[in-house]
Amino acid sequence: MWRLHLCLLVALAEPFLNSKKTYEYKYEGLVRVGRELPDLVESALKMRCTFKIIGESPQTFVLQVSTLLLQFHHFFSIYPSVFSPSQKLTKRLSAEFSQPIVFEFSKGQITDIRTAPGVSNTVVNIVRGILGFLQVTVKTTQSFYELVELGIHGVCQSSYTVEEDSNAKELIVSQMVDITNCQQPAALYRGMALAPEDKLSKQRGESVVSTVKHTYTVKSTADGGLITKAFAQERQYFTPFNVKGGSSRLLALRDIELLKVSDTTDKIVTGQMQSRGNLIYKTEKDLRPIPVVMINLNEPMPKILDLIKHLAQANIYHVDSASSTDILNLIQLLRVATLENLEQLWKQVSGNDEHRRWFLDLVVEVTDERILKFLETRFKAGDITANEAGQALVVAFNHLSAEPVSVALAQEFLTIPFSKSHPLMWNTVVLAYGSLVYRYCVYTDPCPITVVQPLLDMATSGLSKNSEEDMVLALKALGNAAHPSSIKTLLKFLPGYTAGAEKLPIRVQSAAVQSFRLLASRDPHSVSTVLYRVLTLPAEIRMLACMVLLETKPSIALISVISEVLLEETDLQVASFSYSLLKGISKSRTPDNQHLSTACNIAIKILTPKLGHLSYRYSKNVHLDWFHDDFLFGTSADIYMLQNESLIPTKLMLKGKMHFIGRILQFLEFGFRADGLKELLVGKIPQLKKGITDFATIMNIVSIFSLRNENNLPKDRPLLTAYARVFGQEAFLMDVREDSIQSIIKSFSPSAGKESKVWEKIQDVQKGTSWHWTKPHLVYEARFIQPTCLGLPVEISKYYSIINAITVKAKAEINPPPKEHLGELLSSDISLHTDGFVGVTKDHFVFHGINTELFQCGTELKSKIVSALPWAFDLKINRKEQKYEMNLTPIKTVTELFSVNSNVFSVLRNIEDPSLFKITPMMPETEDSQKGLPLARILPTSRQCADAKIYGTSVCIEAEAKRAHYLHEYPLYYFLGHTRFSYQLEPAEGAKPIEKIQIQVTAGRKNPPRVSEMMNLRAYCFHVITVKALGLSPPAKPLGYEGVAFYLPTAQRDNIEMIVSDIGEEANWKMCANANTDKSQTSAKVKAHLRWGAECQTYDLSMRVSAACQPESKPSIYTKINWGALPSVFTMIGQRIQEYVPGISYIMGFYQKYEKNPERQAAVTVVVSSPQTFDMRVKIPEVVVLRIHHMSFLFQICSFMNYGSENCACSCVFV
């Protein structure tokens, strides 16, 4: 009988709504955001209401929401909390909820939601959260089952368990939703396209973890299952690091309970309705609300103008750090302005240089088609300069939302004549379009070939015209785009795939190979197949191919094949470069190289006997990286140097990456190509093939550029090509040609006349000139938005903005002024007064919590770094007598040069009532707050100053750190508190008033008499320099210091001597130093002697370094230090070091023995025993420490530059 009862119960358990009934429920939703710790503040919101579901037809129902109440609160998690109602916001939401909402419901599935046209997207999403309790699948034959089904989080997998309460005739249904691997996720990423995910890093930990659990009570009725209770609990844990190391927690609770069921008496009049889709959460297309600010967006025009004027005025004479957050307010207002608004704003600001610049720098953050149409109008009208256009376009294209309409509009810039009006701007347009295509293809699969077709056509056209410049630009843009369909076109530029490609310039072939760099991660199989065949081409191409090939993360089998090829390689440049690539990766600790490093480690063991001795005269890669699992953060850096027979590198590249929260960001990369320069110089200066060893060679290089029409380099061949990549995308490309260098040299030449631009600037300075420049920039905006079970969006956002500013004022008096050419300045007296400042403000925000256009509830990290350098000084120059004088005004008030401020806040914002905004430090400022940050341990006091009373100035450092927790295993806790650090100048306490600080520099051959008597020099003096730094306070005599340096060359050695003395009536402190270098070619010897104290007689220290490297002996370096009397602090440090020598030497693998050595002497001897090892002997009083055959990175770097060769001696000098 009980089995029959159970079957009947289960059969009637499927959720069902009777179209003739009215169901009334009470609803309560709660969100809490914080750390869930007893002494930290959390922010929370609560939403209560009752709602009715009224049947219209068997599948159509009406939702009515009433008695809505929205409440907010800040509280400590262990104490009972009382929420404060927001009357104005409740009233605004109630007005929208009062309109009927219609939905289609059948068999436990909601298929369509319809509302009146004026209902906001925020309200519709809350409705989705309310109706979500109906979206449950109850199977009648299983107690556990898994389904992929639609919900508010998207199409995700759910795991169900069903329990039966036979007494109450109810089923308890539990549902766990896996929202991290949804087939069709509702979650949205924005701003992360250029930071691809690293799956291996995610295996080590996650920065975001979410769990969702639903519990339903389903009562069996005659019609079917009736949901009487529905409880949902959602948790999200977030940290900038690894969640296991402490995290910010968001808790969302939804509780729905049936109040009553009644017969429907009256039909609801719904009026005009529009479909709003199914139950999946819908995100606003423009992502209008920026989470860290909240501003009323109605009537944006006057607010935009006011903010532009305010920011421009506030940042003229200094960087106003207090107003830097207004950048985000201005961006948010610009994003709601219409295209017509932008055109009107342009008309109003374009006539004012300051307002115009601020507008152009920030309007580019309008990240949809409006900015493209605005810039297109500017390009066609020609009412902006090429400089303004290039700066605006590169930011606009790279911050643009990559939608089909945006890509289509961006293509138009490739055909506008203004885009080609300046070479650098044309490069910017083409490269930026390639970057846009890349970001578009990240979220579009398959990516249509139409978006990359213009770049393919450019490459084909450049090839047909044999235009090296056009081919290189198109190939670099294709490298930015990384479209899989471009491989066929790229092969046209690679020998071995296309007939005649071997005749293309090496620069073009190089660009073609590097165009595969981003394709390596998108299509590693195809790229590795292509590049492996390239390993038979010219040396430079093979080196670049190997570099890109390793980006595909090849298998151990392919690495083995590469090793075999390198064993047979005859070109040592290729062998050295490839070996160093493999060696760098073999030591890598970043997750992306986890498997590759193992394969490379095996390869290195095979290759080292043959290639391990190659020196840095050959092409090399230096790779450095680190990664911390608890932080899920690391960095890596690479230096690539490609060269051939000369010492001038053919190509030099520097690249840095950041590894964070499971993603890899290629932060910055710089590169230089110098084939033209090498070709020009090596042909005229044969010494460059061996090295630059004298000043005459350097001057010969300069003279080559000053001689016109004597160089045979083609006019279209650049001497130097420079590029820069930001976030992996090439954003800057510039060719430096010979005529450009000659033009610069001519402008500064003493023979330059009034036609020179330098002449024009000098005339301006004589009249008095000023210059001001600012550059606000939103460096990145990264957002992750995910719905909660309440229909409210939880957002994790990161913003990083910068304001750069500089102001310069200058006025000069030149006597006599130049009349015909610049060379006349060399015999004039010049007096220059200048004042101004340069400063940078950097704001970094991280937000975690609920963010809508109506309210915000969450936690917020705010970090501000301010750097500022003001100046005001007079400069007097007498070039003829080689006298220079600078007068500075001492600091009169506290001047902060550098500061860092950081704190984590609990925030509540409400658009309807700004007076209720609450921004509370998460860690309250209580007396028992601990100062446990390592910074506080390093600085035992919160303020330290170093006084220079002679100059009336103090340098002070202030540090403050307040922490509620100090647990090493929880890195997030380091940020949960107030941090402040500042470096500042201020007037010295107790010092006499100083009128000015004067610095005098005198250069010449004549020896000052007083110094001559002191030094008792027998040698003739050459290039003598005297420097005085004085504090002047008339009528008192000057105080300060005087330094004199002598350069005394002879045929056998170079001597340098220096004296620094205290200037004053009774001052006798002096420091005397001398050093000399032996010029012998068989050995290198450097001696230095330092004495200081009263008349240089109190303390003394001397050092001798010698290096010997002859063909018949082993290279060696010998260092000896002797000392007499020393200050007590030196003695204490020496004793401490000597105490630790036994332990440290044991750890490092040295062994020691006790000997009676000179008491005031230490010596180190290093002898190279093989190209990879050295022997070391350290002697200090009473102890000798030795180690035999030790591997050293230092000696591997030089390997004494071909150990055992005749050139060894010169190499030892550099080591």
TrEMBL record:
Keyword Lyase: no
Range of residues in the leader sequence: 1-19
Coiled-coil residue spans: none
SMART domains assigned: DUF1943 (SM01169), DUF1944 (SM01170), LPD_N (SM00638)
Biological-process GO terms, alphabetical: cellular response to estrogen stimulus; response to estradiol
Source superkingdom: Eukaryota
Cysteines joined through disulfide linkages: 156-182
Keywords of the record: Disulfide bond, Glycoprotein, Phosphoprotein, Signal, Storage protein
Annotated Vitellogenin domain residues: 17-653
InterPro entries according to UniProt: Lipid_transp_b-sht_shell, Lipovitellin_superhlx_dom, Vitellinogen_b-sht_N, Vitellinogen_b-sht_shell, Vitellinogen_b-sht_shell_sf, Vitellinogen_open_b-sht, Vitellinogen_open_b-sht_sub1, Vitellogenin/Apolipophorin
GO molecular function: lipid transporter activity; nutrient reservoir activity
Name this polypeptide is given: Vitellogenin-like
Origin organism lineage: Eukaryota, Metazoa, Chordata, Craniata, Vertebrata
